[in-house]
Amino acid sequence: MLEAQRLGYVAGQTRLLSGVTAHFAAGAVTGLIGPNGAGKSTLLRLLAGLVAPTEGQVLCQGAPLSGLPVGERARAMAYMPQDVPPFPPMPVREVASLGRLAHGESAACALRHPAVQQALDMTGLAQFGTREASCLSGGERARLMLARALAVDAPILLADEPVAALDPAQALMVMQVLRGLAALGRCVVVVIHDLLLATRFCNTLMLLREGALQDVLPPADLTDARVRSIYGVTTRRVENGLVPWALSEPGQVAGD
Ligand SMILES: Nc1ncnc2c1ncn2[C@@H]1O[C@H](COP(=O)(O)OP(=O)(O)OP(=O)(O)O)[C@@H](O)[C@H]1O
């Protein structure tokens, strides 16, 4: 579905990424993990075509991404950035409907599109539809960025730290949504620091360090030795540790 071929990126005098070759499968959630500054967001931006690689190329459904017309690219891939920009003075539903711009719909058409309502439902924002987006809390704003990306309804979703600002219930809900999309055949690539959620919800983990892809492995193979070599920390499996595991009343999650 999505492929990186010997991807490299240099900004000014600084090399941010080198020699990344990887296949991102349809029907799977791929988790990009690695220390701060490893190059995860850079890789995601290259995959999204937001910046052009200085070496190598991205293939989207077999075709070079650089050759795809902008509109086609926008419909093929949805991207959720790590940083939430200041929202314009518009209601939540309208911000989510911006995802439909990729399809060339009029603003009125976009607002009514079922994908927008679905995106608000999936991110637990349905009850905030008419609220000013600029009034949302940090976690709600992050979910709105995800809702905008989900409203594109694209076969590929690239999400940069979608759960970093979320409470445990919302984080579980979002990871379940991502896994649900993968189950429908979508290609989902997510940058994530929470190793518990990453190992539980991702089908494949890609470990980045110092701008290079160090390893591609199933979550079960993320051993203490690997975590130590990547992050310089040791891990422990805590049998009676208290971790958020499931929503007590699915679909009944309160707002932030
Ligand atoms: N334009 C730039 N010029 C120079 N260095 C840059 C530029 N953009 C990013 N960097 C550096 O490149 C490295 C990789 O950045 P990137 O945002 O991809 O890391 P990351 O793995 O997503 O980190 P984090 O987990 O902290 O979000 C960082 O050290 C960053 O400071």
UniProtKB/TrEMBL annotation:
Keywords in alphabetical order: ATP-binding, Nucleotide-binding, Translocase, Transport
Organism: Acetobacter peroxydans
Taxonomic superkingdom: Bacteria
Single GO MF annotation: ATP binding
Protein name: ABC transporter
CDD domains on file: ABC_Iron-Siderophores_B12_Hemin (cd03214)
Functional note: Part of the ABC transporter complex HmuTUV involved in hemin import. Responsible for energy coupling to the transport system.
Pfam families: ABC_tran (PF00005)
Record InterPro entries: AAA+_ATPase (IPR003593), ABC_transporter-like_ATP-bd (IPR003439), ABC_transporter-like_CS (IPR017871), P-loop_NTPase (IPR027417)
Keyword Translocase among record annotations: yes
First and last residue of the signal peptide: none
Domain ABC transporter stretches: 2-235
